[in-house]
Amino acid sequence: MSGASGTPYAASVLRALLDAGESVDLVVSRASRLTLLDETGISFRDAHWREDLREWLTRGADGKPGTYTVDVGAVRYWSAGDLAAGPSSGSYPVKGMLIVPASTACVAGVALGLSKDLLQRAAGVTLKERRPLVVAVRETPLNGQTLRHLVALDDAGATVVPASPAFYAGATHIQDLVDFVAGRVLDAAGVGHCLYRRWKGDLGGGHSGD
Question: In terms of CB atoms within 10 Å, which end of the chain has fewer, N or C?
Fold first, then answer.
């Protein structure tokens, strides 16, 4: 997680990964802690990360507690300042990396090959090891510099997924729009999920799906 607005996207992705039986190495940047506090009122603390993460993931996009039941036992948390952490090495076994949400500062750091924190370092390692890197950029409008950085990431093998909700899936609540973006992130990573109804190609209005 980087410091862009959009913590509900990250929560939806995390819940779906855990539901799919995936283990998760979680990195929360310093800026994203501030965003999480602003958007949810939750202070994410290293010493109490498991309790704080559980409280956050049980909430829906509307902020109501107790919306979801979540087991965070498959999550391993790494401090963003720990450059000696497992994900900083190419020998650490992972399937890939998702940056959700991705700020323009994070995009720039990864595109330029910087390693100012564990998030950027792990992303660089993911690219050099030719593993899937999905970047869910959450900003608008985008200036030319950021667009060039996104092209550089695409050239390096990353998949750029703008946090742009679609409306054909029959969304009736804000959580539906959040889950659509999260689902597209997971699609890019090859992770199965049931977060949104898929397009069936029926122009007669039948947008039903599994």
Answer: C
Q: Determine the CATH number of domain 7-189.
A: 3.40.50.1950
Query: Cα dist. 184→13, 132, 150, 166, 209 in Å?
Result: 10, 14, 17, 10, 15
Residues 6 or more apart whose CB falls under 8 angstroms from that of 205 comprise: none
**What is the three-state SS of 21-45?**
CCCEEEEECHHHHHHHHHHHCCCCC
pLDDT, tens digit (0-9, with 9 covering 90-100), for 5-51? 999 999 999 999 999 999 999 999 999 999 999 999 999 999 999 99
Cα three-residue angle 60-6-15, rounded to 5 degrees: 45
Tokens 């792990």 belong to: 122
The 3-state DSSP class for residue 5 equals coil
Write the CA distances from 46 to 2, 33, 73, 151, 153, integer angstroms. Answer: 16, 11, 16, 34, 30
The H-assigned helical ranges of 41-135 are 49-57, 104-111, 118-128
Look up the pTM and report it.
0.93
**Alpha carbon distance 42, 34 (integer Å):** 9
The answer to whether the CB of 26 falls within 8 A of the CB of 118 is: no
